[in-house]
Amino acid sequence: MAENLIIFNARVVTPVGFSARRGREMGELCVMDNATVEVTDGIITYVGKNRGEERDGYYQHYWHYNARGKCLLPGFVDSHTHFVFGGERAEEFSWRLKGESYMSIMQRGGGIVSTVKATRACNFIRLRGKAEGFLKQMSAMGVTTVEGKSGYGLDRETELLQLRVMRSLNNDEHKRVDVVSTFLGAHAVPEEYGGRTDEYIDFLIREVMPAVVQNDLAEFCDVFCEQGVFSLEQSRRLLLAARGMGFKLKLHADEIIPLGGAGLAAELSAVSADHLLHASDADICAMADKGVVATLLPLTAFALKEPYARGREMIDAGCAVALATDLNPGSCFSGSIPLTFALACIYMNMSIEEAITALTLNGAAALNRADSIGSIEVGKKGDFVVLNTDNYHFLPYCIGMNCVNTTIKEGVLYPVL
Ligand SMILES: N=CN[C@@H](CCC(=O)O)C(=O)O
Ligand SMILES: [Zn+2]
């Protein structure tokens, strides 16, 4: 659904541009007071100072919204989540509280593989209903575009099912959030392969990925490149095959140990490398050189009690950094945008302006969409967040609490508070 909308008396706060902002550019926001933003058929058609036309009938075919000086930002882009899954893993969380590590739980058959069992037991309606609930919560925190991954099927049928759920949510006429789909069949090796990882990769390349392409079910292909999961060589083989089939590339890289996944992302000119808790200096420079978006997921580091990714150093090295939540049932059962802002600014030493760019324009770039979303500029989608304050510093200051007043999707208003 797309609407005509005129927003006036806004304090517009936005990064500017149609591609990722790198390095120091990330801290440069445009702030405009007494601003008007016009949205026609869901697309921004004017951004500038109030002109008073809303008073003289010029906009009779538009909804009117008086922002009363509050901050108007681009809708947030959560560019890394796993929001379509069956079951929960609360028990696993309690084991981690007692000291067990994420990888040791995975190695003894828990972790991702236990969500795979629960997801395989779900049908389309159950998976869709649960995922739709997450989208509503995301929208209330200002998210207007989300990326979602498969990877809890690990067989042809269930991987396609997860992707069909995402397509169905994205095709919903009344959707509040656009959904971008990523194929993550290489998330773990399913039990039935008994550790025969190369054979499983062959199966993905021969039998699953072609079906994903034929049915146009995913734009990106991702891999969990990690010791004990998919090695650098196995990840390279899978991603080269994916690229040959027309997928754009993403990697879960250097999350648990410094394996070199960030370097592989640079070598393959992936769109993004994600997590990066242990990315080396050389690989950070290689990502900056190749324009690979460094997608950082501070909620996961927080939930796993791991050191945070070196966001400050990455920006200083000239990287384009994006922030995302990583919402998933295991390592990080949170899609909290407010807490993501707070952790990025407090523990990764990002400025508030940089964090805003990371959750808007650079999130859009991580999804190859910086030309159509992620900033408030003519030609982009009319996707916005209205804060309940004129001070955008509330975004990280309001720790873990929501300061979103209204989310606007393609010109349609969704009041929150
Ligand atoms: N690290 C791999 N994948 C997810 C976790 C998935 C899970 O634990 O279910 C992540 O990005 O954190
Ligand atoms: Zn992930």
Automatic annotation (TrEMBL):
One of its GO terms (cellular component) is cytoplasm. InterPro entries: Amidohydro-rel, HutI, Metal-dep_hydrolase_composite, Metal_Hydrolase. Zn(2+) binds at H80, H82, H252, D326. Fe(3+) binds at H80, H82, H252, D326. Binds 1 zinc or iron ion per subunit. Residues 277-411 form the Amidohydrolase-related domain. Its EC number is 3.5.2.7. It is found in: Cytoplasm. The keyword Zinc applies. Pathway: Amino-acid degradation; L-histidine degradation into L-glutamate; N-formimidoyl-L-glutamate from L-histidine: step 3/3. N-formimidoyl-L-glutamate binds at Y152, N328, G330. It catalyses: 4-imidazolone-5-propanoate + H2O = N-formimidoyl-L-glutamate. Its cofactor is Zn(2+); Fe(3+). 4-imidazolone-5-propanoate binds at R89, Y152, H187, E255, S331. Its main location: cytoplasm. Keywords: Cytoplasm, Histidine metabolism, Hydrolase, Iron, Metal-binding, Zinc. One of its GO terms (biological process) is L-histidine catabolic process to glutamate and formate. It is an enzyme of class 3 (hydrolase). One of its GO terms (molecular function) is imidazolonepropionase activity. Catalyzes the hydrolytic cleavage of the carbon-nitrogen bond in imidazolone-5-propanoate to yield N-formimidoyl-L-glutamate. It is the third step in the universal histidine degradation pathway. Belongs to the metallo-dependent hydrolases superfamily. HutI family. This is Imidazolonepropionase. It comes from Bacteroides fluxus YIT 12057.
